[in-house]
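Researcher: Quick test of sequence recovery. Tokens follow.
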């Protein structure tokens, strides 16, 4: 499988992601948005964004493993964060890049600040698309 990532001339520099991802693959896995819900149905409190991020990353790694993929196979990501400032969004992006899921964000990615997500107190959700061998 070939995954090509690049930034074409004429567009702005990025903080780690690529504007274009081209995939030559027979199969793609579209993974549902992962959030900070633990296997027992509980989740970290809204005021602990780091714990919510860590649980969300763990859930992303689990669903990737379920389709025999890893973060380097991700070809598209969208990250939703309930945040009041651009600084908070940048902080989440930095933490994600440094996490075990970090290679997933070198691809075509979107980071969005939103006002609300699906669970009460939920602060982060990550959608991934992976190319499978």
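Model:
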């Amino acid at each position: 499988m070939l995954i090509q990532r690049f930034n074409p001339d004429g567009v702005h520099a990025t903080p780690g992601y690529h504007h274009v991802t081209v995939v030559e693959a027979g199969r793609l896995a579209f993974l549902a948005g992962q959030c900070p819900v633990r296997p027992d149905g509980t989740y970290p409190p809204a005021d602990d964004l780091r714990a919510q991020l860590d649980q969300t990353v763990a859930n992303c790694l689990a669903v990737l493993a379920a389709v025999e993929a890893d973060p380097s196979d991700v070809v598209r990501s969208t990250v939703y964060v309930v945040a009041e400032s651009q600084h908070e969004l940048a902080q989440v992006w930095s933490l994600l890049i440094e996490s075990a899921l970090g290679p997933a964000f070198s691809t075509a990615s979107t980071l969005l600040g939103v006002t609300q997500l699906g669970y009460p107190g939920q602060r982060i959700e990550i959608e991934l698309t992976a190319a499978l061998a």
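The first strand starts at residue 2 and ends at 6.
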